[in-house]
Predict the 3D structure of the following.
Amino acid sequence: MLHGTEILTTAQMRAIESAAMASGQVTGAELMERAGRAVAGQIRLRWARPGLVAVLCGPGNNGGDGYVVARLLHQAGWQVRVLGMENRPGPDAARMKAEWQALGPVLPLTQDALRAGPDADVYVDAVFGTGLTRPPEGEIAAILDYLGGSGGDWAFFRERLVAVDCPSGLCLDSGAFPGRPREPGDFDLRARLTVAFDSPKPGHLLERGPECCGELVIADIGLAAWRIRQPNEGATPSSITRFPAVEALWPGFAVPDSRRYPMAARRQASWLRKQEAGSGHKFSHGHALIVAGGPARGGAARLSARAALRIGAGLVTLAPPAEALPEHAGPPDALMRRGVDDPAALRDMLADPRVNALCIGPGCGVERAAALLPAILGAGRATVLDADALTALSRDPGLMALLHENCVLTPHAGEFGRVFPDLAERLEHPRPPAAGGRDQASDPARMARRLAELAAYREALAKMRGPLYSRLDAARDAAARCGAVVLLKGPDTVIAAPDGRARIHSAFDVPWLATAGAGDVLAGIIAGLLARGLPALDAASLGTLVHARAARHVGPGLIADDLPEALPAVLRRPGG
Ligand SMILES: NC(=O)C1=CN([C@@H]2O[C@H](COP(=O)(O)OP(=O)(O)OC[C@H]3O[C@@H](n4cnc5c(N)ncnc54)[C@H](O)[C@@H]3O)[C@@H](O)[C@H]2O)[C@@H](O)CC1
Ligand SMILES: Nc1ncnc2c1ncn2[C@@H]1O[C@H](COP(=O)(O)OP(=O)(O)O)[C@@H](O)[C@H]1O
Ligand SMILES: [K+]
């Protein structure tokens, strides 16, 4: 469960590659050979018998990798068609292209050339990788659209497409396709398999990345020596290669063993189960206070409280206004209740230093949250702010100023937009023309209309340059601004601390987690972990992992009430 791996932004990857080459211990051509060998190897693992492969090579080093794949598959008995671009590649890619040309021709990289050939068993997409600087245009855009299904048969290519580093056109920093709507599009290039090098990039895990990359394999190409973790080195230019501050939690893809965290996994598993020596009495596991709302609104906070109990907080107290107390008389009996009507009553409770973690927001009501937040934040205790507490925060800059590093904000996209409207705005793109379902993709008239709309859309966005602003950027900027941990929820949850450390958690495999109340449970789990003494970033990260694992354990049909009840099973097998 607790495997993690480091993620590198494309800038970090380039810096590490340059550092490796500058050392004189490895050349660019050697790295390219290793990259191409890794891709060819993965293809041969999956297609046991040599067949026909079409290799599409772009103008840069991604294309260079493609020429290596072409040569190695040819040597392995495959029939190889290579389509390449006119542009002059760099020296390493030029060399790989020349080596291929000693074996076979390079056809033009056009839709016509591709369609003129027989159907291939495998299509290798080596057009663009980390060097994408702008939306693909013209003939390249057309061929990528064709591979994405504009010819009507997207499933055909989806089965056969192997992407080198990423499906071409995907921005590996954001997981979005520059020049396209951020929502899923009809002709987004979707690969069966993506082989990436050294480390996953944010774009493999965010937004469109997980779906469009298909199965993701991270290949070790021998750059470990230039990727040493030295977190204390500060933000000097060279430290960009040395401090991969972003990690993937539960990556769900093949990572070389050397890139995992087995020790941390073992330690956290026994810690979660309270199996460590001297784990003490109930107060040593903390006391979480869950603020609840007025009459008829208490369900959300009860979900949080149940979750805090199940994740192992020593004591959990639910604090609704006194008039709502009777509603909370039912189970669980393990839960304590205490009426809290106003800030003075809350301060009274917080006079007990053993109350070491709070959760406010689920079912709380915005006014009540606004009234209680100054007392809560002023106490300086570890605090989860969710739902109504986030809305209250968005309305009062004075409250924002009270946030501190032991706070965890857990907004979904809508709440994030309320609290950080300018950052959310940067993530937004102009809306695409109305999109239909893929099932209509074989209607030729509709297809022509969609292509025309897409061309107009591209034209409108043609001025856009450079890497896209990502959910990772947004969460980091938000955390830095408010001085607290920000957990931006979604199937690609991003968790960021004010110092820039960040974690990405992919939960694209549990869409049934998007159900009413799931967020309340997450808030409670994190509050419980805070009560047990985890620092804010770790509590948010581990909480997110455990939450998704509980959803996996229950499966489709899940309702939020099931999540706390699934926690014992998850804790029994935290490594499973
Ligand atoms: N980072 C590493 O350590 C390694 C990287 N390698 C490969 O190198 C790739 C990166 O190579 P590059 O930096 O050359 O970048 P790419 O090969 O991804 O693309 C850059 C080229 O495409 C052009 N370009 C970018 N966007 C375009 C657009 N929309 N339309 C037309 N042309 C466009 C650029 O001007 C440049 O010529 C990686 O993705 C990977 O496949 C491997 O060869 C080995 C090691
Ligand atoms: N498509 C999805 N796949 C997996 N998890 C998702 C998806 N959409 C949302 N989630 C997760 O489900 C939970 C929903 O929380 P939230 O939006 O706050 O719902 P609520 O307010 O109803 O509790 C979050 O943990 C979020 O990360
Ligand atoms: K590619």
User: Anything to note?
Assistant: Confidence is low (pLDDT under 50) at residues 229-244, 261-266, 430-441, 460-466. Residues 62, 125-129, 163-166, 168 surround potassium ion (ligand 3) (CB under 6 Å). The longest helix spans residues 28-46.
